[in-house]
Amino acid sequence: LHLDESLEVAPCVRTDHREIGRLAAEHLYERHFANFAYCGYPGILFSDFRRDAFLAALATFGRTAHVYARKSAQIAHDIMSDRLVRSASDDTHLATWLRTLPKPVGVFCCNDERASGLAEVCRKIGLAVPEQVAILGVDNDELIAANFSPSLSSIEPDFFANGFNAARELNRMLIRTLPKRTGTIQGQRLCSSNPRLVIRESTAFLSPATKLVENAVSRIDKLALSGATPASIANQLGVSRCLLDLRMRQSRKETLGSLLRKRRLEEVKKLLKTTCLPIGAIAGRCGFQNVNALRNLFRRTYGISMRNWRKSLPTL
């Protein structure tokens, strides 16, 4: 039988995915992350249950999450054969997805195997765990979670309660005279609702440094186009620019100044594409006091002048 069909034809004991999702959201939220993500096996029942529970729990904090959404026929086939094998193609898409996530980010994975795979991809592409990507799995499989480097935080379902409920249900079915099967018996489910959190290195506590970086990024988003400088932002946050740049490099692999320039250049390209404003006016709107400085920065960054870049855009 297909996995989801099998749940409807016999009593079963399953993990309480809602409680696992709540615990994951609460743990990552308490670590002061502003960005969240979920990585599972899209289209696979247990993974989708945990995804939905995680998103629902985050919503109670007023937060949302980025979700890895690529389905893999190879992964689905392996699960139906009781084998989970990461493919090179899946790793490539995971790497692309990880690069697009805002950092730092707390990622909840559907199980420890997915968590270890994600951590391995982070290592390959140079993302620091937990400084840039904090990772939380499920199952507390110590062969994976405790022996991985860095060790992986994990939510351990209440396996004892699962076994106890299964034995109790089987005993109940054996000792009484069973009538002809009815809908009351079919599909009955008992949930284990006492998972525990095992905290390891992959979600190590990052505050107050993480909070400082989040505040700096938030101010850049608000003030980048108003002519704010790295020194003025550091001053508003009550820290030295050297300390703030150090925390930025540790968390995001970039400095305050480089992030400011990136935000401004994004707006420059947007105005070049969507308006007919002269370059001098665009410079002023994007926080550049010197139009020549903008011209030089644009050419150095993209290898083309702003005028030629605008000309290369397709006409509507």
What does this structure look like?
This protein has 316 residues and is of the alpha/beta class. The protein is 52% helix and 10% strand. The strands form 2 sheets. It has a 6-stranded mixed beta sheet with strand order 3-2-4-5-6-8, with helices on both faces. Strands 1-7 form a two-stranded parallel sheet. It is elongated.
Feature tags:
316 residues; alpha/beta; 8 strands; 52% helix
Q: Please count the beta strands (DSSP E, at least 2 residues each).
A: 8
* Shape, per Cα inertia axes: elongated
- Main beta sheet: 6 strands, mixed
What portion of residues is helical?
40-55%
Task: Please give the count of helices.
Answer: 14
Structural class: alpha/beta
Using the CA coordinates, give the radius of gyration. 25 Å
How far apart, in Å, are the first and last alpha carbons?
A: 53 Å
SSE run: HEHEHEHHEHEEHEEHHHHHHH
Tell me which oligomeric state these chains represent. single chain
Give the low-pLDDT segments.
Answer: 1-7, 76-83, 180-187
The average pLDDT is 83
Give the percentage of residues in beta strands: 5-15%
Q: What is the topology, as strand order, of the major beta sheet?
A: 3-2-4-5-6-8
